[in-house]
Design brief:
This protein has about 160 residues and is an alpha+beta fold. Helices cover about 25% and strands about 35% of the residues.
């Protein structure tokens, strides 16, 4: 559990190894490739922000999670949010989500969408507690055939944000 302050910032190329490790540790078979992550961290994926959560700050900071959010016109999508096991339940995911909401609003989005595995009760509860509501389901969305629950949060004036 994290007890130190969490700083969320744009990912830098120096963070690539930590982001790749976070993907692999947290998303398993659904992890993105190192090549795709390198393109995103370098800022070469249009409309998409790669963020990292760091504890410890300064030159001794440790990346303990990451998030990816895209904003296209009025729709934002939280594509990724992952936190190292040792830093869960300490505000890291909340800080990353808050930064994604800020990015969505700054990009002009009215709503933030995401998919989460239907068997991930912890994540479903986390998002519901922060105002997300289920709007759809995508059967066989994940590589192992699991269903995705599509959730939505209004972040702009036209969608209750």
């Amino acid at each position: 559990m994290t007890t130190r302050p969490v700083q969320v910032r744009a990912a830098a190329e120096a963070d690539l190894d930590a982001v790749v490790a976070s993907e692999q540790a947290n998303l398993g078979a659904d992890a993105w490739s190192a090549g795709l992550l390198a393109e995103g961290v370098a800022g070469r994926v249009p409309h998409t922000s790669y963020l990292v959560a760091e504890v410890g700050g300064g030159t001794g900071g440790q990346v303990v999670g990451h998030a990816v959010v895209s904003v296209v016109v009025d729709v934002a999508e939280l594509q990724r949010i992952a936190v190292d096991v040792d830093h869960r339940r300490g505000g890291v995911a909340s800080a990353l989500l808050d930064a994604c909401v800020v990015a969505a609003r700054a990009g002009g989005a009215d709503r933030l969408l995401l998919e989460v595995r239907e068997d991930n009760a912890g994540a479903l509860g986390f998002y519901a507690a922060r105002g997300f509501t289920e709007v759809d389901r995508r059967p066989r969305y994940y590589r192992d055939g699991a269903t995705a629950v599509v959730m939505r949060l209004g972040v702009g004036p036209r969608c209750g944000g």
